[in-house]
Amino acid sequence: MTIRLYDLVGRDDRRFSSNAWKTRLALAHKGLPTEAVPTPFTAIPRIGDGSYATVPVIEDNGTWVGDSWVIAEYLEVSYPDAPSLFGGATGREYARFVQRWAESRIHPFMMTLILADIQERIAPEDDAYFRESRPKRFGRPAAEVQAGREDRLPEYRIRLEPLRLVVQSQPYLCGDAPTYADYIVMGSIIGARNMSAFALFEEGDPVHAWVHRCLDLYDGLARRPTDFDW
Ligand SMILES: N[C@@H](CCC(=O)N[C@@H](CS)C(=O)NCC(=O)O)C(=O)O
Q: What pLDDT is recorded for position 105?
């Protein structure tokens, strides 16, 4: 049975939801057939029973689940025979830490580097919503948020030092094989790569090598034909 995943779509079928990418990689990790349903921001209220304010949301044979973390736990419990996302309860708590780190220190800061680029490539029907909602969230118009990003890029890279120090000596955060902890950080990088030409990493950086290892996973699932190949 195919699982339906509702994720964000921009112009040219760009899938740019950091949180939906976590789920998409989790579904691939579990080997579960998936249909990724393109969903503009303004169509989110029409998903399922209309109670969802954000994506990802999945529908698994009549069961609806929202929130990337809740979905990961649901998949782990519902598909125990498929490869584990966390590698047990201890791994799940490690991933929880990575989630809190990424959502507090990494992802919001990264958004200030690419917000205007996202605005440029948002689905046309989301234009008005994005132009109204983001200045409220960030306190300024997207162009002003993004201005001076070259000066802030080193800070973003420094914030990723804990990741860098791990993946410079082993392929993935938990060792030789990818787990949900990797997908948490990768989700926001894949979203950025699909919407912005602004290279967050340089070749030679162990984080860059890790990003490309992750992009190669599952037949290059996250390596969509993109004009931004950083
Ligand atoms: N904690 C939630 C956060 C979900 C979330 O914020 N999703 C964003 C897309 S990455 C969204 O749907 N935003 C809707 C909006 O800004 O209107 C999760 O992990 O699923």
A: 98
- Ligand 1 center to residue 55 CA distance, Å? 5
Domain ranges (residues) in the chain: 3-78, 89-220
Backbone angles phi, psi at 58, to 5 degrees: -120, 155
Ligand 1 center to residue 203 CA distance, Å?
30
**CB within 6 Å of ligand 1 — which residues?**
8, 17-19, 41, 54-56, 67-69
pLDDT tens digit string along 188-230? 999 999 999 999 999 999 999 999 999 999 999 999 777 798 9
89-220 folds as Glutathione S-transferase Yfyf (Class Pi); Chain A, domain 2 (1.20.1050)
| Residues linked to residue 172 through DSSP beta bridges, in sequence order | 175
Question: pTM above the 0.90 mark?
Answer: yes
What crossing angle do the helices spanning 107-121 and 127-138 adopt, rounded to 10°? 150
CATH class name, domain 3-78: alpha beta
Spell out the residues 6+ positions from residue 136 whose beta carbon is closer than 8 angstroms to its own.
none
User: Which residues is 58 bridged to in the sheet?
Assistant: 5, 65
pLDDT, one tens digit per residue, over 174-193 is 999 999 999 999 999 999 99
Atom of ligand 1 nearest to the CA of 99: 19
Q: Which of 39, 55, 185 to mutate to test the pocket of ligand 1 (most atoms within 8 A of CB)?
A: 55
Compute the distance from residue 54 Cα to the ligand 1 centre, in Å. Answer: 4
